Amino acid sequence: MYYFDPHIHMVSRTTDDYETLSKMGCVAVSEPAFWAGYDRGSVDGFRDYFEQLTSFEPSRAAQYGIQHYTWLCINAKEAENVELSREVIAMIPEFLNRPGVLGIGEIGLNKNTRNEATIFLEHLDLAMETNEQILIHTPHLEDKHQGTRMILDMLTGDQRINRNRVLVDHVEEHTIRPVLDAGFWAGMTLYPVSKCTPERAADMVEMHGPDHLLVNSAGDWGPSKPTAVPDFLLEMRRRGHAESLIRRVVYDNPIEFFSQSRGFNFQVPE
């Protein structure tokens, strides 16, 4: 079965990982901008990073038949530096019309601070001005419920936002329902340390149904598994779920969501 990984940080992966993903049925990936493992010191550092995301990574992926898409922002981990964040936000439009750019993301909160919220709202303003889709990072572990509530309050308080064009990622059992009930898409991240497991993701599909649900691997610098989506697929098969239901979550739903972006030019594999 073909699948789509809608949130994976391939800049942190080797080229061998692209080959492995291709062999396991991955036909497309979506890569949000994120933290580099250290705080970047200038807007030029971000410009170089966006160049990598929009030019080098698509060509690296294409060698293995994988279509690569990306999102642009300054991540919440670096949003405490408001001055730098505003410089980066002002620079982002230089890249928004490049092929494969899907929108603004992954924006959100890290420690739920005032500065993070300020930069989150200014990213929303940019997305509304440029008619972009939005991909959102929710905080980790003990801060997740509060951070998700703060994010939902900011989103629902903005009447400009089309909720069907927003993906709220890293949901868990205690945050998935508020996200779906508010009319947003929800992403389940399969991660060995925090967030979710294939078994818990399968539980959530069984409890809440497949509508507006995506599943991803994150695959970033830390302990992570770029082939986590096939693990979810296997768990769903082990439980006896229909192939059509599994395909909906790992393939049809990502395409339905991303098709709302002008930068999505997905070619169906032959």
From TrEMBL:
Would the keyword NADP turn up in this protein's UniProt record? Answer: no
User: What superkingdom does the record give?
Assistant: Bacteria
Q: Which GO terms describe its molecular function?
A: hydrolase activity, acting on ester bonds; metal ion binding
The keyword Hydrolase is assigned to this record: yes
**Family annotation (InterPro entries):** Metal_Hydrolase, TatD-like, UCP005295
Q: Which family does it belong to?
A: Belongs to the metallo-dependent hydrolases superfamily.
Keywords for this protein: Hydrolase, Metal-binding
The UniProt entry, under PANTHER family, shows: HYDROLASE TATD
Q: What is this protein called?
A: TatD related DNase
Pfam families the record matches: TatD_DNase (PF01026)
